[in-house]
Amino acid sequence: MTRHDSKITVVGGGAIGGIVAARLARAGVPVSLLARGAHLDAIKRNGLSVIDGDDRYVIDLHATDLPDTLGVQDLLFICLKGPALTAAAASLKPLVGPGTHIVSVMNGVPWWYLHEFGGALAGQRLESVDPAGAVSAVLPPSQASGCVVHISSSIAEPGVIRKGHGNELIIGPGSARLADRAANAIELLRRARFDVVASNDIRRDIWVKLWGNMTMNPISAITRSTGDVILDDPLTKELVVAVMEEARRIGKAIGIELTMTTDARNALTRKLGAFKTSMLQDVEAGRQLEIEAILGAPCEIASKAGIPAPFLSVLYGLVGQLNANLVRRT
């Protein structure tokens, strides 16, 4: 069971981190939130507001942009996008001790993915998501577990989170030694009224979600099309399937078997209707894109494993140019 005096911080107060922090605090779990900018200012001034269907509430919680004021934590939920984590990693050092359990609540391949996993690639560092080891130096892979998010959420305005569809989190330990710590995190999030699935193979669950994200996200960002349009067009659907089959082979090379057909996986995507992916929303808002965890890391794994991935590489290159243009404009 989680101790009542445990120190818990959610790193990243955005769409998902804000929901996690607000729900935990509402459930009576003492939690701090590491946020920044206008969003942080609004939270400090008015509390963190959540709009969840007809349920609207305001939570007063400790929010700051100064990690060194919080001290070493027992549990960290890392709810940052890849580029933000790389930029912020060094500043998180005061939060992490040898007993800190780190749960990555992120899209795509996390920095710890190949720790004690991956066959011939086990133990290798992924430069795409851990450049020069900047992330793993502060957030040790041996202390990390994973969380796959099936929740849509957005920042309606500074200090206000609007929760959309879904309520599921899939959590599993990064190694067997963390099983009890992962169980504690699951307990906390269930208290916070999330539908939490305990995973015994979190890397596979991460790859299964990525299987859809690595196609729909970049194609939608490049074309500005919603998911239904991408799958209704024979040519873009053909590209989707080609990338997914490459991803199946990449996964198999590191020990992940995907038994679902591409048609079955795309049928799940179709159920979302005319949805805008997170990457398309970032393009429209002029924000930096989350590329490396979704495309860069799979490409890097393919290269290390000697698996050809020409279609995935093309998508990676195209969306990289799109992101460079967005960055230059900001």
Automatic annotation (TrEMBL):
<dbReference type="InterPro" id="IPR051402">
    <property type="entry name" value="KPR-Related"/>
</dbReference>
<feature type="domain" description="Ketopantoate reductase C-terminal">
    <location>
        <begin position="201"/>
        <end position="322"/>
    </location>
</feature>
<protein>
    <recommendedName>
        <fullName>2-dehydropantoate 2-reductase</fullName>
        <ecNumber>1.1.1.169</ecNumber>
    </recommendedName>
</protein>
<dbReference type="Pfam" id="PF02558">
    <property type="entry name" value="ApbA"/>
</dbReference>
<dbReference type="GO" id="GO:0015940">
    <property type="term" value="P:pantothenate biosynthetic process"/>
</dbReference>
<dbReference type="InterPro" id="IPR008927">
    <property type="entry name" value="6-PGluconate_DH-like_C_sf"/>
</dbReference>
<dbReference type="GO" id="GO:0008677">
    <property type="term" value="F:2-dehydropantoate 2-reductase activity"/>
</dbReference>
<keyword id="KW-0566">Pantothenate biosynthesis</keyword>
<comment type="pathway">
    <text>Cofactor biosynthesis; (R)-pantothenate biosynthesis; (R)-pantoate from 3-methyl-2-oxobutanoate: step 2/2.</text>
</comment>
<dbReference type="InterPro" id="IPR013328">
    <property type="entry name" value="6PGD_dom2"/>
</dbReference>
<dbReference type="InterPro" id="IPR036291">
    <property type="entry name" value="NAD(P)-bd_dom_sf"/>
</dbReference>
<dbReference type="InterPro" id="IPR013752">
    <property type="entry name" value="KPA_reductase"/>
</dbReference>
<dbReference type="InterPro" id="IPR013332">
    <property type="entry name" value="KPR_N"/>
</dbReference>
<dbReference type="Pfam" id="PF08546">
    <property type="entry name" value="ApbA_C"/>
</dbReference>
<feature type="domain" description="Ketopantoate reductase N-terminal">
    <location>
        <begin position="8"/>
        <end position="109"/>
    </location>
</feature>
<dbReference type="GO" id="GO:0005737">
    <property type="term" value="C:cytoplasm"/>
</dbReference>
